[in-house]
């Protein structure tokens, strides 16, 4: 099952954890003290580039009756939507640029280009997800209520087909999953919601989603249909495909940050009396990175540095790459794992986990305390005291013992 005692799992004393927290605080202070004109230029240039791409995409679609123009316009618009959602919208609404005191680039005023309301997202994501990261029963992002991503979730027959089906549907329509999340449909169906508050949220979602649908599937198609080189239908289809491109990419980036091997899950007991150092530790253990150059960093909203983002959700995204070197050095110092890998490998691991957990536990070889996607402090029960030096070393020792057992079993079977 999930981790119930973070310090025990991490093999750190209370003093170690607090020292770890102090060093992370020092990194934050250094970045806050050095924020300035270059950072402001970065976000303003990113916004300008994104808007230019969107305009270019929509202009190209005025010739969308031609297949080549349709694909070029659709791809350009899809990239523009990715940048707006990932590097701009997500990060602006985290308050990463509030220090600039620019009313246009502020977490309280930004409304992004997707069906969900920014107001709703700031609650479900900024508050619930980032405060209660990967805590079962608190963080709705753990499986989004429909996908089994940990053995702590009881297997149900619908998981046999539903895990892969719902993950595919969620990827294609990710903006709608994000938009509907704040409505808490599960509580509504069970009659456990505050009906008055629900009606307010439904109305707010309806207004935003309605405006988004009208913009993408009525207004812009109608405008481009005035061109002799385009039709209403061709532009409507292009907008739909551009939204799917954005949705699938955003889903992949988010899943790579939370569901590969090594992104730990926690129980509610972990949050009781949690100190700042323990919060830092849980954020780091519950997140995963993927590796890439500057373009992949930019297109992912710098969420390839998900660990650093969860440690410092309100620091400018363009600074996360430099922060990552210092965080990785701290992990080495405290013998903690720094979960990262190739993007395609990390994404493949999320699908492997989702496919594997579509099966009942009796068909799975790993235990509930020692599986790649679900680990706890009990995975170290068989280690001798001298083998429990630190988390990274202890995990290596457990893996070594498992390899030895498999080799012995093979020899006995032969």
TrEMBL record:
InterPro entries: FA_desaturase_dom, Fatty_acid_desaturase. CDD domains: Delta6-FADS-like. It holds the Pfam family FA_desaturase. Residues 69-340 form the Fatty acid desaturase domain. PANTHER family: DELTA(5) FATTY ACID DESATURASE C-RELATED, FATTY ACID DESATURASE 2. This is Fatty acid desaturase. The lineage of its organism: Bacteria, Bacillati, Actinomycetota, Actinomycetes, Mycobacteriales.
